[in-house]
Amino acid sequence: MKKITIYCGSRKGDSPAFESGARALAQEMIRRDLSLVYGAGRVGLMGVIADEMLSAGQEVLGVIPQKLVDREVAHLGCTELIIVETMRDRKWLMAERGDGFIAMPGGIGTLEELFEIMTLNQLHYIQKPLGLYNVNGYFDKLIDFLKHAKEQGFLYPEQEELVIISDDPVDLLNKMEAYQARRPADW
Q: Rounded CA gap, 134 and 167, in Å?
């Protein structure tokens, strides 16, 4: 894994733990010499993680639709900024460019991206590790819901295993690297 696609909020959330968590993840990515692929926002947690990576000289690839550039939310300091037409184009390019994925606290867009990557992995359109960075217990209720869906017969046990969950960036990236190393060669 050299490039990690991060999905996260265009807002910082109400707890300072979210911003601290974003900085901690960025610092661990910097320590491992990983690059960031993300939605190119200069606002919220998106801006926090990008700024942290850029300040250390790490490569940051931002992908953003023209409509959001027009709304002046694009981070123009990205190492590489790709402007696309649609959100669908943005999501696919981010999925294509990343070697692994991490969902951090965020809103509906973050959840949509998380579930899309889960689905693409489940159906073997891609086979890349997906981490859920559970900062400050943000995803606890979602994790409970996924367990509920499995108990109700709507998720296979292996689907639940497609998501690597941790509240610690070192542990999360270690588990993602281990997942990448053990995945079947025919994927």
A: 5
Pairing state between β 60-65 and 35-38? parallel
0.85 exceeded by pTM: yes
pLDDT in tens, 28-37: 999 999 999 9
Cα separation, 16 vs 26, in Å, equals 16
- CATH class entry, domain 3-179: alpha beta
Pair 49, 79: CB distance under 8 Å: no
Instruction: Give 100-144 pLDDT, tens digit per residue.
Output: 999 999 999 999 999 999 999 999 899 999 999 999 999 999 999
Q: Taking the C-alpha atoms of 92, 93, 94 and 98 in order, what is their torsion angle to the nearest 10 degrees?
A: 110
Q: Which residue has 């939310």 as its token pair?
A: 73
Q: 138 to each of 100, 105, 124, 135, 183, how far by Cα in Å?
A: 21, 6, 28, 6, 28
Burial 107-129, CB ≥16 within 10 A → b, else e: eeebeebbebbbebbeeeebebb
* C-alpha to C-alpha distances, 79 to 56, 65, 126, nearest whole angstrom: 12, 17, 25
